[in-house]
Amino acid sequence: MSVQALAAGDYEEINPGSLDRAHRYKLFTGTVIPRPIALVTTLGELGQVNAAPFSQFVIVAVDPGMLGFSIGPGPRGDKDTLVNVRREREFVINTVTSPLAQIVQHCGEDMPPDVSEVEVTGLGVLPSVHVRAPRIAQSRVQFECRLERIVEVGSAPNHFVIGEVLLVHIEKGLHEDCRIDTRRYDPIGRLGGRNYSRLGDIIET
Ligand SMILES: Cc1cc2nc3c(=O)[nH]c(=O)nc-3n(C[C@H](O)[C@H](O)[C@H](O)COP(=O)(O)O)c2cc1C
After folding, report:
1. How many CA atoms lie within 13 A of 159 on its CB side?
2. 46-58: burial string, b at 16+ Cβ within 10 Å, e else
3. pLDDT tens, 68-102?
4. C-alpha pair distances (Å), 36 with each of 83, 131, 197
5. What's the confidence (pLDDT) of residue 83?
6. Residues near ligand 1 with C-beta < 6 Å?
């Protein structure tokens, strides 16, 4: 199969530094898609469960297993997740499947630190084994993480949070020998704005 090549004249050049933040955000989050979503649960200072989605989310290492997500500046300063991770040094990454799209969008709204997104949205929680933050019962796969480090990036600043995975909880029947049944998993990705995608055709190579 041949892939059509574009000519140099088919492209526009955009210097990201010449854009305002809102346009840079739109350009990046509309083109780097679909992004998997980490619904991160942390414990607040008073023991309330905080849940916030982060789609700037990636596998950082496999030996040992580490996952990372990037937290941007919040409207009131540091986001609750960052404050909680700094204090508790642990968190849970709950993966997100299609029935959770609306709830995840709701969890992404700015709420005061003493308000639990879990309670507001009616999500269920299950206890974790190695960390104090609970996991989300509607999530099919959860990663209990211990903070490895927080890397400060850029001038905003953004905080890239890296966690070592201590334990993976995976719904029974979702894998065979660690090979995931992708269709059954039914993950969603974040697109630009308030849009999400499900799996389309799977391309076997
Ligand atoms: C699907 C989705 C993905 C998001 N991804 C990010 C992200 O990667 N980084 C970020 O800083 N905010 C992201 N947000 C916004 C945060 O979830 C939002 O600021 C949230 O209120 C933070 O909650 P917290 O203050 O409880 O930590 C995302 C929102 C949604 C709905």
Report:
1. 19
2. eebbbbbbbbbbe
3. 999 999 998 999 999 999 999 999 999 999 999 99
4. 23, 23, 10
5. 98
6. 37, 50, 52-56, 69-72, 74, 79-81, 104-105, 108, 110, 190
Which of 79, 83, 96 for mutating ligand 1's site (highest number of atoms within 8 Å of CB)?
Answer: 79
pLDDT of residue 95: 98
**88's tokens:** 């508790």
| Å from CA of 171 to ligand 1 middle | 25
Peptide bond into 34 cis (omega under 30): yes
Q: Enter the pTM of the model.
A: 0.97
Instruction: Determine contact, residues 89/146, Cβ cutoff 8 Å.
Output: yes
Amino acid found at 155? S
Classify domain 37-172 at the CATH superfamily level. Electron Transport, Fmn-binding Protein; Chain A (2.30.110.10)
C-alpha–C-alpha distance, residues 188 and 175, integer Å: 18
The rounded distance, in Å, linking the Cα atoms of 197 and 118 is: 23
Q: Is the pLDDT of residue 1 over 80?
A: no
Task: Please identify, by atom number, the ligand 1 atom nearest to the C-alpha of residue 83.
Answer: 27
